[in-house]
Write a structure and sequence with these properties.
Elements: E1 5-10, H1 13-24, E2 36-39, E3 49-52, H2 54-58, H3 67-73, E4 78-81, H4 84-98, E5 105-109, E6 112-116, H5 121-124, H6 127-142, E7 146-151, H7 154-161, E8 169-172, H8 177-181, H9 194-202, H10 208-212, H11 216-223, H12 227-234, E9 252-262, H13 265-285, E10 289-299, E11 304-315, H14 318-331, E12 338-349, H15 362-382, H16 390-393
Parallel strand pairs: 2-4, 7-8
Antiparallel strand pairs: 1-6, 1-7, 2-3, 5-6, 9-12, 10-11, 10-12
Helix pairs in contact: 13-14
Amino acid sequence: MDRVVLHVDVNNAFLSWTAIDLLDKGYKEDIRNIYAIIGGDEKKRTGIVLARSQLAKKAGVITGEPIFMARKKCPYLKNFKSDYSLYQKKSKQLFDYISKYTPDIEIFSIDECFIEYTNVKKLYGDEIEFSKKLSKEIKKNLGFTVNIGIGNNKLCAKMASDFSKPNKIHTLYKHEVKEKIYNLPVGELFGIGKKTNEKLNNIGIKTIGELANSNVETLYKLFKNQANKMIQHAQGIDNSIVDSSYNEPKGISNEITLDRNIEDKNEVYHYLLFLSESVAMRLRKQNKYAKVIAVIIKNKYFIRKTHQKTLNNHTNNTNEIYEFSKKIYDEMQNDDAIRLIGIRLDNLTDKTEEQLSLFDNVTKKENDSNLDNVLDYLKDKYGNDIICKASLNKSDFFQ
């Protein structure tokens, strides 16, 4: 029996989940049906479009652009603030619902997951009929729609779920690969980022089919050890497993799934600083200290890597966590573009037993601790957007 994998992807998750929450609270409009966006504070340069309704999309609004630019295209746009705690709640509801059918799911991001359907096909029957059933149940019980992609591996299932949206079910079986994706632009192959696409175009490879039929020796000159995997993916070949082992991490963690492949180290550092502030603040709220810091990445080929360090002392200091996370990331020697970055704190304790060396700057540690407490207070009182590290504020990450 051929392997069967499903990929479930929430349609316009942040906007859909915000819409459901607003309707539950008595809001009279379904923001999915108006010119609406999910964004930050548009009075600041940090205010960018995180999600947009279909009408806003038709008006030319682009995800990731500053809100003031979106308003020039669509003056009557309504902006609704993002609520990550709500999104985590809705995400958990989705994955808990799917887990009723099988524990063999891999959470790929806050709004998408893979299902290893092979082992339960005898129980639930044809995968297309099951997908129709699951899609209807999610809409009825949870209030939002999903796309479901079906394939013989994770890559094909992921590609299939992206064919057309919303509320669709698509297949990309191995016998359909040539027919359905060989004529697509090579940049539409999952895992091919902007820079890789440009390099391929420069050597005459414009379509997925041309990449699938290319010579590995030729590609090796440009892409080294990734050349063979790129060709295999273009051919619809992917042997990665549906890995559920990371779905319930211990300790305190936060991860970000990126909307594009990230290759620049300095850009990764900006995300690490953002994540360090997030996990450190949660640590301090629980009056905890951590001794183990782990950095998690997932590259464009679904491969997840984790590397960790044990500190000399327990800490809940943002700057210490950030500096160690940078060192850990550098040690991972990651040459691939990444699609997910995260930080996890483990070996937690209620108190710190700090052993200072003669060279430790005690005053700086105290000042850092005081600064962290002040920032926590301001964010609790006025919201997370009130203040941030200067290096975050100046970075392109928030522009």
